[in-house]
Amino acid sequence: MTTNSTTSRSDNIIVLDSYYEPLAAHLARTRLEAAGIPCFLTNENLVSLNRMYSPVAGGVRLHVYARDASRAAEALREPAVMQAVRGGLAEPAAAPTTQPVTNCPRCGSDEVSFDAAARPGAAHWFVALLSRLRRYPLQGRAYHCFHCGLNF
After folding, report:
1. How many CA atoms lie within 13 Å of 111's alpha carbon, on the beta-carbon side?
2. Left, alpha or beta for 86 (phi > 0: left; psi -120 to 50: alpha)?
3. Residue 5, in any domain of the structure
4. Integer CA distances (angstroms), 144 to 14, 82, 130, 135, in order
5. Which domain holds residue 146?
6. Do 104 and 151 meet the contact criterion of CB atoms below 8 Å apart?
7. Can you give the pTM of this predicted structure?
8. Region 126-141: what's the mean pLDDT?
9. Are residues 27 and 65 in the same domain?
10. Percent over 90 (pLDDT), the chain
């Protein structure tokens, strides 16, 4: 018995994306099928029966042919949001502006995140009470470096 090992690389099936929620996976599958791209889902029954298995099973996986991967990624790309204005549609909404990249003063890493809860006055009264009881004063530090752990 011989097997046909001459299948091309474009006939391979790849995992395009995985989803925690089965509903999001079905919406993506429907969008791809509407675009004429053959696809299928795996692990949907397992994740639907018990959501705790989703991280273990790798979520609900969306599979496509390798030859259709770029078309599928384009079909799943979020469309630009148009806003209705008097007289028609406005230009697509601008992308939200992000804060400028801040480097850590200790190690110089750019793996820095702004923590809104660390702003002065943003803490709840309960957190303020606990900080007084534990003798940890609330400080106005708003950035955290994930490389060295410095709060600044």
Report:
1. 8
2. beta
3. no
4. 37, 35, 21, 21
5. 101-152
6. no
7. 0.50
8. 55
9. yes
10. 32
